[in-house]
From TrEMBL:
The gene is tilS. Belongs to the tRNA(Ile)-lysidine synthase family. It is an enzyme of class 6 (ligase). NCBIfam families: lysidine_TilS_N (TIGR02432). Keywords: ATP-binding, Cytoplasm, Ligase, Nucleotide-binding, tRNA processing. Residues 307-370 form the tRNA(Ile)-lysidine synthase substrate-binding domain. GO terms for biological process: tRNA modification. Residues 1-21 are annotated as: Disordered. This is tRNA(Ile)-lysidine synthase. InterPro entries: Rossmann-like_a/b/a_fold, TilS/TtcA_N, tRNA_Ile_lys_synt, tRNA_Ile_lys_synt_N, tRNA_Ile_lys_synt_subst-bd.
């Protein structure tokens, strides 16, 4: 079982998907990492193959990010969770974490989420737990019930993150590591573009989102597979990863290979670079917009209001971004393009039309203010 955080002095932290966690605990300073890590009781730490050693440096770098704060749990050193499925990426992540632990001065523990979607899933989860225990990590299996909202992939993802959220709260861990690779990032960017998600889709996944940390976003999937092979591990091959009924599987096994064949090698790396550059630009823009929002927003009953004049005076790109940031930051709701334009029309095409109702929010125009009000259900 994973350790449970002491009740005394504990904080009610926000969920992993939305927290900022500024000002908690201590930050780890990045310095020179020795070529040979200190030995411990773990065989992975004593005799780590070269690929595992290299992957461990990615974990050290990611956990040294200024947005990651490692906080002690009672009298214990900071605890970081590792999300493990039993596949090659997550087993490589767990092995590299065990190797990095002495350098970071933290404890790692694994959380294996059993979605129960396939026959024998419980056995797969327990085998993954036994494997990471051989690395010297504590491990627990969390069985979840997967709903129907968002389709099979979306529902499973929601259940998985809810389980990780619960584990973070229960244990008082500072962060959870996820095994997404550069290849996953490339797939995410392509999927976003195919859905017409706009420039935001180019950002892909962030290395740090709240307490979610993805240290392998610059690592190819071939490298995680190589690490598992070097360790002689029998990783689980999820049949869903090759099931053409899943969109991501088609992107992985059909779309990206065709792009590589037709446009030349390096497509995945190019998509990942694009995501990194787009995120840098977007984050800087969002920070400036958030400062502006503070000047034009006021509290309102069950929500807040935004100055119509300020919205109207700015270009559509800024106006729409303000609307999206207010919806996401204040109400936890991600707006579609159609919703954003409908709300913006209350500013630019005002003809006395009624309020705009979207999941979790009602937006109306009242005098010179655009009023956002919370309603019954939120859509994350």
């Amino acid at each position: 079982m994973l350790p449970v955080a002491p009740r005394s002095g504990s904080r009610d932290r926000p969920p992993v998907s939305t927290s900022c966690r500024k000002g908690w605990g201590r930050r780890v300073a990045w310095g020179t990492v020795a070529d040979t890590f200190p030995a411990s009781d773990s065989g992975v730490q004593r005799n780590a193959p070269r690929t595992v050693h290299r992957l461990s440096r990615e974990i050290i770098r990611a956990l040294s990010n200024r947005d990651v704060v490692l906080e002690r749990v009672g009298d214990e050193v900071p605890l970081v969770l590792v999300a493990v499925s039993g596949g090659p990426d997550s087993l490589a992540l767990a092995a590299a974490a065990a190797h990095a632990a002495p350098v970071l001065g933290v404890r790692f523990a694994a959380v294996i989420v059993d979605h129960g979607l396939q026959s024998g899933s419980a056995a797969v989860a327990e085998r993954a737990a036994e494997t990471v225990r051989r690395f010297g990590l504590q491990a627990t299996v969390e069985t979840v019930a997967v709903g129907d909202d968002g389709g099979p992939e979306g529902a499973a993802r929601a259940a998985r993150y809810a389980a990780l959220d619960a584990a973070l709260r229960r244990t008082g861990a500072s962060a959870v590591l996820l095994g997404h690779t550069l290849d996953d990032q490339a797939e995410t960017v392509l999927l976003g573009l195919a859905r017409g998600s706009g420039a935001g889709s180019l950002k892909g996944m962030a290395e740090v989102t709240g307490r979610l940390v993805r240290p392998f976003l610059s690592v190819r999937r071939d490298d995680t597979h190589a690490a598992v092979a070097e360790l002689g591990l029998d990783a689980w091959d999820d049949p869903h990863n090759v099931d053409a009924s899943f969109t991501r599987a088609r992107v992985r096994h059909r779309v990206l290979p065709v792009l590589e064949d037709e446009l030349g090698p390096g497509i995945a790396e190019a998509l990942a670079r694009t995501a990194e550059q787009a995120r840098e630009d977007s984050d800087a823009f969002d920070e400036m917009i958030e400062e502006f929002i503070e000047e034009i927003c006021e509290p309102a009953e069950a929500g807040l209001s935004v100055d119509i004049g300020a919205l109207a005076a700015n270009p559509a790109a800024i106006r729409n971004r303000i609307i999206r940031l207010v919806a996401r930051g204040e109400f936890g709701t991600s707006l579609s393009r159609a919703h954003t334009l409908a709300i913006a029309a209350l500013v630019t095409e005002w003809k006395g039309q009624g309020p705009i109702d979207i999941p979790g929010i009602r937006v109306s125009r009242n005098g010179g203010r655009l009023v956002f009000t919370a309603t019954g259900s939120l859509s994350h």
